[in-house]
Write a structure and sequence with these properties.
Blueprint lengths: L1 H7 L2 H15 L12 H20 L7 H8 L9 H6 L1 H21 L9 H12 L11 H5 L1 H15 L4 H29 L5 H4 L13 H11 L2 H8 L5 H16 L2 H21 L2 H20 L1 H13 L5 H4 L3 H14 L25 H29 L4 H16 L9 H15 L5 E6 L2 E6 L1
Antiparallel strand pairs: 1-2
Length: 462
């Protein structure tokens, strides 16, 4: 078992898990008689078997991290709705197997549960999700989404009491997750490229095959790339002599640009600016030299393919519309309707399916703004719970600010800014990632700090 655990602690294991995820997700067409793609289901159940094996045989649940993150980005059913979740046997069977593994782990290793640093915030959010069920008309579709925050709370309590965290491992997972998401964007672009052979090269790579990528749409891809993007800088600071990390960092930059997501560009611009500023303030001479080489190479790459930038700018101008509502892709209308619901149910909100009273809610959908969503679905109590959650994260991260915390905050703040105009905070993958990251963080001991040497910063591990 020690040899297996050594493998689970390696970058190769993380790479294999995300490779399985990418291959399985890429089968996006239905395979009758299944509503879900058969090969996608095989990938999901393979991940379930791996996670169950880890839960049964290893006390440290850190090794679940890449598997649990892969679950978030592997589903490829593009027309999934609440009805899908409540009528399909596949998701129910998958969840049953997963929870069986958790139950066996708790019994075998006698896991003791204690209240940890972020418990209050997650608990309040869980109760805010459930509170509207007390008075809104019963609808089976409201059950799956209303209990998701309870699942977040359970996952946080379990992981924070069963994990021996490792921040170096966490940042490896974040980097591989970023590469996975980037690869999914490029696959999306490639499939669109195949659909339009009559166009020239530059127009073809801007097409894409479907805005909905199964577990989310192309806008969502961008804020997950932004959240995990600072992980590149972690390895640049830890291993300043390698050029590989710099080279890999070019791909998410290209992916976000080709996604044509305006909201995604906003969030990514914030994270890129934060990374650049952090790099200038904390980088040493070698870091700055490599950074200049990276910027020069990237500028040359875009100059040689400047036609892409021209097309991107033209499409951006065309997408602006003639008024504020069209400019915002109907978000002003959505916000207005969300505030109507809030005024009707100011204390605890109108519940998570209140948006279904409007004709535009065809798939699993939200109000395209963190605060509008909180007010409409959970009322003032939900907004209060969210602020408590923010306070606990900010208080923990700002204390003894170091390399890891700084980089997390850059990605987190960028995605929260994106969340002002998009479905970020309450998206299931995003909330799940925050649970996983925080549980790992507070159970970790090794952190990297900065020391000033000859007017430049160097890092030391404490």
């Amino acid at each position: 078992m020690k040899r297996i655990e050594s493998f689970l602690n390696s970058g190769l294991y993380i790479f294999i898990i995300f490779t399985i995820t990418m291959i399985s997700w890429s089968f996006y067409k239905e395979t009758p008689p299944f509503d879900f793609n058969l090969y996608n289901m095989m990938g999901v159940f393979l991940l379930i078997l791996i996670s169950t094996f880890i839960l049964i045989f290893f006390e440290n649940t850190l090794y679940l991290l890449p598997v649990l993150i892969s679950f978030l980005f592997i589903i490829n059913k593009s027309d999934m709705t609440f009805d899908t979740l409540t009528s399909m046997g596949f998701p129910i069977a998958a969840l049953t197997l997963i929870f069986s593994g958790f139950l066996i782990h708790i019994i075998r290793f006698k896991t003791k549960f204690k209240q940890k640093k972020f418990y209050i915030g997650f608990f309040l959010i869980a109760t805010a999700y459930l509170a509207p069920l007390i008075y809104i008309p019963f609808d089976i579709r409201s059950i799956p989404v209303s209990i998701t925050a309870v699942l977040y709370l359970f996952a946080y309590v379990f992981l924070s009491n069963s994990m021996k965290g490792n921040l170096n491992y966490l940042f490896k997972v974040m980097l591989f997750a970023n590469l996975l998401l980037t690869a999914e964007v490029f696959f999306y672009i490639y499939q669109g490229y195949l659909l339009y052979p009559e166009m020239d090269f530059y127009h073809r790579i801007f097409q894409g095959w479907n805005r909905n990528l199964g577990w989310a749409n192309i806008n969502d891809m961008c804020f997950y790339i932004s959240l995990t993007f600072p992980s590149y800088l972690y390895f640049i600071f830890k291993k300043p002599s390698t050029y590989l990390t710099w080279f890999l960092m070019i791909f998410p930059v290209i992916a976000v640009l080709l996604s044509k997501s305006r909201g995604g560009m906003v969030g990514f611009a914030v994270v890129a600016g934060g990374v650049f500023l952090f790099f200038l303030l904390k980088g040493n001479k070698k870091h700055l030299t490599h950074g200049l080489i990276f910027l020069a190479f990237t500028a040359l790459l875009f100059y040689l393919n400047r036609e892409i930038l021209y097309l991107w700018y033209d499409e951006l101008i065309q997408s602006l519309g003639t008024d504020l509502n069209s400019f915002s892709s109907n978000r002003i209308y959505i916000y207005t309707e969300g505030l109507k619901i809030f005024r009707e149910y100011p204390l605890f909100g109108g519940g998570w399916i209140s948006i279904y009273s409007f004709p535009f809610a065809g798939r699993i959908f939200m109000f395209h703004s963190t605060f509008i969503q909180a007010l409409a679905a959970m009322g003032l109590y939900g907004l209060f719970a969210l602020f408590v959650h923010y306070y606990q994260i900010g208080n923990f991260m700002i204390r003894k600010l170091n390399l890891e915390k700084s980089l997390f905050l850059i990605g987190y703040l960028a995605t929260q800014i994106h969340g002002l105009i998009d479905n970020v905070q309450f998206s299931v993958p995003y909330s799940s990632l925050i649970v996983l990251f925080l549980a790992t963080w507070e159970t970790s001991e090794l952190e990297t700090s900065f020391t000033l040497v000859n007017h430049r910063y160097h890092i030391i591990e404490t």
